[in-house]
Amino acid sequence: MSQQAVVHAYRHLLRQSLRAIQFSKPARFTLRNRLRLAFRRGDAADFDQQKINNTLEFLRYATVENGLEHKIVKNLLFVWWHEAEGIHKKIGKKPVTLQEAEINITAYDTFNHQIRMLNESMGMCLPAMIIRGRT
To answer: For position 63, what pLDDT does the model report?
Structure first.
């Protein structure tokens, strides 16, 4: 796929997502960072226009009505915000045990798997990536 098509897809997804969250301040930056990371880590060969269209339609429904789509978007951004906050949180003076480190590493694996399954069943492309450490 051409570079211009990927840029247009990014812009359309960002614009429609911002409309869906009504440009709210903490969610706006979380969304921007997650979408940037998804497009930077992604491959142009994985680009599928039908998935982009399905995702845009999902976001349009989240914009228009306060229904299931809106709640999904709201909860996704809430969890992504907490995930990013946990990564950038200062380490306390107490040393982290091996069990705590393992929990911190794998805490969001199930959540990201659920997003991948939602994408697969609905033919969408919501960003479902594992963030380990600082980005």
So the answer is: 94
